[in-house]
From TrEMBL:
Chain positions covered by the region annotation Disordered: 202-223
Keywords, sorted A to Z: Membrane, Transmembrane, Transmembrane helix
Name listed for the protein in its UniProt record: DUF3159 domain-containing protein
Pfam families: DUF3159 (PF11361)
InterPro entries registered for this protein in UniProt: UCP010219
Organism: Dactylosporangium sucinum
Parts of the chain that traverse the membrane: 12-32, 38-57, 64-81, 101-123, 144-162, 168-192
Length: 223
């Protein structure tokens, strides 16, 4: 079975967290340096996000995720400029965290857990992992850790946004990104490993179950 570090690399690793923090740091730096200038902060944030996007394109990394990340920053900049509230730069991120929590929870309930979809796709398994009841159940349980991650973020970020604490909000978003993701990776890995049945070969080797309820590998061996 893959180790938690390998699972982290599959899901983006620390580089993805750093890339996410770049526009946040750029906005805060511009806002402070410009005497609380939202325009300067928004401009630097968009430039930072565009730079990250260009680097991702050159590295051939997740084109859809690259576009979404850039759009989030652009929308955040537009919202802050329209409302005149610096903290509203983070409003779109708050909404995406809430939407992500709902989406991950929904994926678990309909038996298409996002953790399985992401890891299974990256491992080239297509839908084979879903035909392994033990692996499917393990992915469902481990995916709840990711739901919890988004809820923790909302519990920290929403009060800060409501109180208009822009610097604290920016600091929390930048600081909590990688530590929280790392904790989520470790927690979901621990749950995933504990939830797999005894003797299961691991996430890289899903066991497809025949109509009789016997793993295909065991049935072929006995035949």
């Amino acid at each position: 079975m893959a180790r938690s570090g390998e699972l982290g690399e599959l899901l983006g690793g620390w580089r993805g967290a750093v890339e996410t923090a770049v526009p946040i740091v750029a906005f805060t730096a511009g806002w402070v340096a410009g005497g609380q200038s939202i325009a300067l902060g928004a401009g630097l944030a968009v430039l930072g996000a565009a730079g990250v996007a260009a680097w991702r394109v050159r590295q051939h990394k997740r084109p859809v995720g690259t576009v979404v990340s850039l759009l989030v920053v652009i929308l955040g900049a537009i919202v802050a400029l329209r409302t005149g509230r610096a903290e509203d730069f983070f409003l779109v991120r708050l909404l995406t965290n809430a939407a992500s929590a709902l989406a991950w929870a929904g994926s678990i309930l309909v038996r298409w857990p996002f953790l399985g979809l992401v890891v299974g796709t990256l491992l080239g398994q297509k839908g084979r992992w879903r035909r392994d009841p033990g692996l499917l159940r393990a992915y469902q349980r481990a995916s709840w850790i990711w739901v919890l991650q988004y809820l923790v973020r909302l519990a920290v970020f929403v009060p800060l946004w409501w109180a208009g604490k822009t610097l604290w909000l920016a600091t929390a978003q930048a600081v909590l990104t990688w530590p929280l993701v790392a904790a989520c990776l470790a927690g979901s890995w621990w749950v995933l490993r504990r939830a797999l049945p005894d003797g299961h070969p691991g996430i890289r080797h899903p066991q497809e179950v025949s109509q009789r309820g016997t793993p295909e590998s065991d049935r072929l061996t006995r035949s």
